[in-house]
Every structure is written in C-alpha cells, then in structure tokens.
Amino acid sequence: MSTTSRTAAQTGTTLRVHRVGAEDWESHRTLRLDMLGADPDAFWADPDEARARTAQQWRAEIAGPRLHLQARRGHTVLGGIALLPAGYTPEHPIPPDRAHIVSLWVRPEARGRGISRLLFAALARLSLDLGRPDLRLDVDESNHAAQRLYERLGFAATGERDPRPGRSTAWVEYAIRTEHLLES
C-alpha cells in the first residue's frame, strides 16, 4: 500500500512510501540487515540476533507493535522508518498521545535526496491517524549527523538522556509535534 509519493527534483524519479506488510518480509529483512551492518551502533537491535531470524520471525516483527514504512523507487528500497505507538514493552508504557520513532535509515547512496523528509512526513500522517501527535525519538549523543537532520526538521532535545549499557555514550531524546513535521 503506497501512502505518499513525490517526485525527486534531483533525479526526476518518483519516490513513494510503502507501508510494510507481511508479504514484504524479505525486503524488510534486507533493509534491516543492511542498516545493522552499516551502522550497528546506531540502533538498539543486535546484528547477530537479526541475522539468525527465520522468515516467521521477520513476519512477526512486521506484525507489530512497530509500524514499518519503506521509501521505494520502483521495487528498490532506499530507506525505512518505523513508528512505535506503544511502549517497547508493557513495562515501558508511553502516554496515549505519544508515539516513538525508531529505525530511520537511508542507504548511503540515496542520501541527500529528501528521502528522510519523505519518510518523516508519511510517518507524521500515520501518527496523526492513530491520534498520537507527540513524536519522540532517541539518538546516540555521538551521532551528530542524525542530530543535525532532526534539528533541521524541527525536532528539539528534551533533556532526557539514557546511558547505553556497555558504552560510554547515552541516548538523547528528541521531540516534535506531528504538525511541525508536515510543515517542514
């Protein structure tokens, strides 16, 4: 199901954002393994665990609780993002008007083409449809490129920090209201 499209002025090709379904498990797996291989420290996931998953486990991941989106040009997946409209676990609930953004990644060869902005706009519309206008995300404090992107889009650091176990860095929380993402 295509949720949005736009023409990329730089290339003249049509990009679309696709809501990932169970039938997309292979493209989802490929994207996740590529992102974890390229930037393993940027995500919560364990690359070894992800590589060992079965097709059934990939389908279960797509089934929820995260809602996955992919930016595509034709059948080529250029990047992805996910929305978590509830806490990571029942022990970590979030307020009913909030959703958490996870797993933003754009293939290095596709960066600089507005794909992140397209993914965030589609995610903002999805979040509004779910009645969750308060969006949050966490980024490693050493990931300055991601922080610059989020700040260009209008995100602001909340001051919340969560030390990363086994590392000398912390996750830094950023927040935005969905309507601001749709304006950018």
TrEMBL record:
Entries under CDD domains matching the protein: NAT_SF
Domain N-acetyltransferase: 15-179
A Pfam match: Acetyltransf_1
Keyword terms of this UniProt record: Acyltransferase, Transferase
MF annotations from Gene Ontology: acyltransferase activity, transferring groups other than amino-acyl groups
PANTHER family: AMINOALKYLPHOSPHONATE N-ACETYLTRANSFERASE-RELATED-RELATED
Protein name from the UniProt record: GNAT family N-acetyltransferase
